[in-house]
């Protein structure tokens, strides 16, 4: 249920001084038309009121004419009003002026509303911070955020907004990052975690070292990117602008012809109203603003209408593998015990104990898996890291080797069926880590770069949404790539590629007539992202480079956001088509027909003319609320 009082309060909040002036112009012109119609004021007062209403339109129209050498809709509306009044349809001209001003006001207010939603979806950064340490001086005190410097330590308590981008020095808590990522569930933060300005600490308390302030924060960069999105016009918007530019002279010539044939100023004024191309200029921009705002609310930054339209037309999605389809975080996928009569849990306990002092990613995967199984891992009495081989440790008096076959062979440990096990592991996209205990082979821990959670469902949703092909590009070996592709249902795999090879694959797809989106991390895949019709950077919340490298930046690593972004883009493109066909085409064709037949006059035409304006506005702004698959 919509909260009407809050909605009304929200609209009032958008009423700037400029908007109140526009309301005053509407009221002055409308009241003057009514009083003149009732013969309560002379025509001179009506002319003054109309001049007040026309002033901003004339000013904008003349500036467009001088700067861009084009006749805009403002000039067209001015001509229509003056022709009506000078032709004797005085009241009709004034009413037309009022209706045009109302339409302009509704358009601008709804645009303000869409822009406001962009900023409100992220919230506001607090203006005051509770400082623990500033410039080397300790002691808690409240300090304006504008006075903070990099390196200052601020305290954030439960329920408060984080004032800076920074790193957690002490404390722990859960931070709601929905304003940045679109994710509703709070994320746990501890020492070393990164937090962003504008997010909310749901529970706990954190001491945060200031890393970025003001315009350098993620909050400010998102705002800037979304606001800049208006500058990137969609092709359909450029087409509408071009049509409006040549339509106005054609319409004026047509109206002169009607006048020469009929000598009926009433018909000419009526046609002037219906042939106004005003809606052509409104049919697209508001949709694009609303769609960009809706996407940003979901943690998706789309850099303008150009990329919205291209994303809506994408029919092939190309993915980088490592860090995109996979989590780039090694994990244990299976454990094989063999030869030493050691159960799986005991094997993991001893292997994790030997690996717990190692910083190698494979060793950390072993330790993490033991922890996930609830195994208590002891400290090793002795520990030795053997370069390019693995580790050797003494655990509870037992000698444990964890590493590759060469480590075990050099220690005189017989490894049964090593080649077969290694080949099977490669075919299954995993790396085999061999374990020996007290000089005897104990088993193999298979470790793989885990498929990102939700990836199969996300790819299935893309295909259900009309994507014809999904393609994986990777520098990894073919066996590993095909194993991952099989898990995900990828249609096509290109493995062992250098960066230029990825670009070549995308170019070949485009040569076949496909519209291609490339999904990568925004840094390593920069050439491929740039070559694709739409480049999509995953996890843009972590890096400035990711925000700048791609046309679309996802603020999380959730692959489902790609489907949501495409769904928003397709809905926006369909909305533009509806606006142009129904709001501009059907209503205007019927109106022109009715005017030529003499069925309606200028006042009726002006009232009917308001219909497509309202239809375009309502149809566009509903993008902020309408249900879209995958979007919140």
Q: Stretches where pLDDT falls below 50 for ≥5 residues?
A: 1-11
Ends distance: 16 Å
Count of spatially separate domains: 3
* Helical fraction: 40-55%
Q: Pairing-aware structural class of the strands and helices?
A: alpha+beta
What is the assembly state of the chains in this entry?
single chain
Shape: elongated
Can you give the mean pLDDT? 80
- Rg, rounded, reads 33 Å
Total helical segments: 24
Number of strands: 20
Main pleated-sheet profile: 7 strands, antiparallel
Strand content: 15-25%
Overview of the structural elements:
This protein is of the alpha+beta class and 632 residues long. It has three domains: 4-119 and 227-291 and 568-624, no CATH class; 128-213, Calcium-transporting ATPase, cytoplasmic transduction domain A; 327-450, Calcium-transporting ATPase, cytoplasmic domain N (3-Layer(aba) Sandwich), CATH 3.40.1110. Helices cover 52% and strands 20% of the residues. The strands form three sheets. Strands 1, 2, 3, 4, 5, 6 and 7 form a seven-stranded antiparallel beta sheet that branches. Strands 8-20-19-18-9-16-17 form a seven-stranded mixed beta sheet, with helices on both faces. A six-stranded antiparallel beta sheet has the order 10-15-14-13-12-11, sandwiched between helices. The longest helix is centred in the last third of the chain and has 37 residues, at 560-596. The radius of gyration is 33 Å and the shape is elongated. The two termini are 16 Å apart. Residues 1-11 have low confidence and may be disordered.
């Amino acid at each position: 249920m919509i909260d009407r009082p809050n909605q009304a309060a929200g609209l009032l909040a958008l009423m700037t001084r400029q908007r109140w002036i526009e309301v005053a112009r509407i009221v002055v012109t409308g009241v003057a038309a009514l009083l003149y119609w009732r013969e309560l004021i002379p025509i001179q007062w009506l002319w003054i009121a109309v001049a007040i209403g026309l002033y901003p339109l004339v000013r904008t129209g003349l500036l467009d004419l001088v700067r861009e050498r084009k006749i805009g809709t403002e000039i067209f509306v001015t001509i229509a009003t003056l022709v009506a009044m000078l032709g004797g349809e005085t009241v009709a001209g004034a009413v037309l002026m009022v209706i045009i001003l109302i339409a302009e006001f509704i358009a601008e207010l709804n645009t303000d509303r869409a822009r406001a939603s962009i900023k409100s979806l992220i919230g506001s950064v607090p203006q005051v911070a509770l400082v623990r340490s500033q410039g080397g001086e300790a002691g808690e005190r409240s300090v304006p955020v504008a006075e903070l410097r990099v390196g200052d330590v601020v305290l954030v308590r439960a329920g408060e907004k984080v004032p800076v981008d920074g790193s957690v020095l002490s404390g722990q808590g859960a931070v709601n990052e929905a304003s940045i990522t679109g994710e509703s569930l709070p994320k746990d933060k501890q020492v070393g975690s990164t937090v962003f300005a504008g997010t909310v600490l749901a529970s706990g308390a954190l001491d945060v070292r200031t890393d970025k302030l003001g315009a350098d924060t993620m909050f400010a960069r998102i705002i800037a990117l979304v606001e800049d999105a208006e500058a990137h016009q969609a092709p359909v918007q450029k087409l509408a602008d071009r049509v409006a530019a040549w339509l106005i002279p054609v319409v004026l010539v047509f109206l002169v012809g009607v006048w020469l044939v009929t000598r009926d100023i009433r018909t000419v004024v009526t046609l002037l109203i219906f042939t106004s191309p005003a809606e052509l200029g409104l049919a697209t921009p508001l949709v694009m603003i609303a769609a960009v705002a809706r996407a940003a609310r979901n943690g998706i930054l789309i850099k303008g209408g150009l990329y919205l339209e291209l994303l809506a037309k994408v029919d092939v999605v190309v993915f980088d593998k490592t860090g995109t389809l996979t989590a780039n975080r090694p994990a244990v996928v299976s454990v094989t015990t063999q030869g030493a009569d050691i159960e799986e849990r005991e094997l993991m306990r001893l292997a994790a104990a030997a690996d717990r002092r190692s910083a190698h990613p494979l060793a950390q995967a072993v330790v993490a898996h033991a922890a996930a199984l609830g195994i208590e891992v002891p400290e090793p009495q002795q520990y030795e890291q053997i370069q390019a081989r693995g580790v050797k440790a003494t655990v509870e008096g037992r000698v444990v080797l964890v590493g590759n076959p060469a480590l075990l062979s050099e220690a005189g440990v017989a490894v049964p069926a090593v080649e077969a096990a290694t080949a099977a592991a490669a075919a299954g996209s995993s790396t085999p880590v061999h374990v020996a205990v007290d000089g005897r082979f104990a088993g193999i821990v298979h470790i793989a770069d885990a498929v990102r959670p939700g990836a199969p469902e996300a790819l299935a949703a893309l295909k259900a949404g009309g994507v014809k092909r999904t393609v994986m590009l990777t520098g990894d070996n073919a066996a590993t790539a095909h194993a991952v592709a099989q898990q995900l249902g990828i249609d096509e795999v290109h493995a062992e590629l250098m960066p230029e090879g990825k670009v070549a694959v995308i170019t070949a797809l485009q040569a076949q007539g496909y519209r291609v989106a490339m999904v990568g991390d925004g840094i390593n895949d920069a050439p491929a992202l740039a070559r694709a019709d739409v480049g999509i950077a995953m996890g843009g919340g972590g890096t400035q480079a990711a925000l700048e490298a791609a046309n679309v930046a996802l603020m999380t690593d959730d692959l489902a956001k790609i489907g949501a972004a495409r769904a928003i883009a397709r809905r926006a493109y369909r909305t533009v088509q509806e606006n142009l066909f129904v709001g501009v085409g059907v209503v205007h064709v019927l109106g022109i027909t009715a005017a030529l037949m003499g069925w309606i006059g200028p006042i009726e035409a002006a009232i009917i003319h308001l219909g497509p304006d309202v239809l375009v506005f309502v149809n566009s702004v509903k993008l902020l609320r309408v249900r879209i698959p995958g979007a919140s």
